[in-house]
Amino acid sequence: GAVVSQHPSRVICKSGTSVKIECRSLDFQATTMFWYRQFPKKSLMLMATSNEGSKATYEQGVEKDKFLINHASLTLSTLTVTSAHPEDSSFYICSASLLAGSTDTQYFGPGTRLTVL
Amino acid sequence: AQSVTQLDSHVSVSEGTPVLLRCNYSSSYSPSLFWYVQHPNKGLQLLLKYTSAATLVKGINGFEAEFKKSETSFHLTKPSAHMSDAAEYFCVVSDRGYNNNDMRFGAGTRLTVKP
Hints:
The structure holds 2 protein chains of 2 kinds.
Chain A: E1 4-7, E2 10-13, E3 19-25, E4 32-38, E5 44-51, E6 57-58, E7 67-73, E8 76-81, E9 90-97, E10 106-108, E11 112-116
Parallel strand pairs in A: 2-11
Antiparallel strand pairs in A: 1-3, 3-8, 4-5, 4-9, 5-6, 7-8, 9-10, 9-11
Chain B: E1 3-6, E2 10-14, E3 19-21, E4 23-26, E5 31-38, E6 44-50, E7 56-58, E8 64-68, E9 73-78, E10 87-95, E11 104-105, E12 109-114
Parallel strand pairs in B: 2-12
Antiparallel strand pairs in B: 1-4, 3-9, 5-6, 5-10, 7-8, 8-9, 10-11, 10-12
């Protein structure tokens, strides 16, 4: 149980285009979803916390107009990288949590590798 | 805010010998602590978690960790390393009782297992 999927697993795009990454909880309803970014050989950096039906909460230094997050249902959150540039190339990982307002285990997706040419 | 420090960026052991990956945490509340493993180009897999029950936590693949409040530590151990244990390991802290269950990751420890 508690499986999280991401699509696509890998994407290559041209500079200036927008890319959408989907995160789905397959066998549970995720009240809260998280988006992380991981640079090569580095740790995960939390980008934003997303609650179903409300606006995402972004971490300091993360541009909300650059990284659009939509959490339209309890099983789906999307991250759109708008007008992507080479410096946006990274490994993006989402996670989903079962309970709201309390600490609970996060279940992580397999990640999406974005390469911007 | 909560944080973790993984004391070693790289640990190398021989197959069959014990593994020790060190982690110290800082938390304003009663923390939940986790260890995750990441194999190359893969997602994160939960090894084990501590959420205020038994201080010695047993996880998958023979790993265990002990929560020591007096030392603010949560070190990960395994009695005998296997080649398949080679991966990146992350110690993670999350403040319990705080209405925001975001997790803070350590910098990671890369475990190498020599034949």
